[in-house]
Amino acid sequence: MSDAEGVVDFVVIAYREEGLWQVESAPRQLGHDLNKIIELLRQRPGESGALAFVSVDEDFFYAVRLIGPDVRLLLSDVTAATDWPMAREVVERLGLPRPDDDDRVQPAGDLTIFADLGVDPMSLAAICDDLDFYPDEMLMQIAARAGFGPQFDDVLP
């Protein structure tokens, strides 16, 4: 399946200014290009960096966190890289091998990406591993634990 055939459900950007979370939606087509997401985050540096959440086809999500020049990535399901170019781009940027069709569903990337925001690696892994949740539900849990759940919910389509 190509990105053109797939659907980016939403792209949400979050950052803190003067201690308050700023959460906004971004054009969905940005979710197809990791470099464009990073460029957008550079425009919103925030006090503890800026976050982007991209939900794809109600199947998986990827998150990007930019703190200064440091780009941190999380892919909710490494097996998505077998079918989705945007997931492959994340896996390649992480320097991981492309998964096989028989690999198990598991997150890939930086599980400490939100640790300083109150989402420890074990909790994040548990959220990503729960196959009963859609990506928006997983991201809502992350946003709630990080302290911007209501703002996140307000910008969802």
Structure description:
The protein is of the alpha+beta class and 157 residues long. The protein is 30% helix and 25% strand. A hairpin with a 3-residue loop joins strand 3 and strand 4 (60-67). Helix 4 (135-146) runs antiparallel to helix 5. The longest helix has 12 residues, at 135-146. It is globular and about 45 Å long. The model has no long low-confidence stretch (mean pLDDT 93).
How would you sum up this structure in a few lines?
The protein is of the alpha+beta class and 157 residues long. It contains five helices and six strands. The mean pLDDT is 93.
- Helix fraction by DSSP (H/I, runs of at least 4): 25-40%
> What ranges have pLDDT less than 50 throughout 5 or more consecutive residues?
none
Q: Which whole number gives the mean pLDDT?
A: 93
Continuous helix count: 5
Strands, count: 6
Characterize the overall form. Answer: globular
Order of helices and strands: EEHEEEHEHHH
Radius of gyration: 14 Å
Q: Main beta sheet, described?
A: 6 strands, antiparallel
Structural class of the secondary elements?
alpha+beta
Span of the ends, CA to CA:
24 Å
Query: What's the arrangement of strands in the largest beta sheet?
Result: 2-1-3-4-5-6
Strand content: 25-35%
Which properties best describe this structure?
157 residues; alpha+beta; six-stranded antiparallel β-sheet; 25% strand; globular
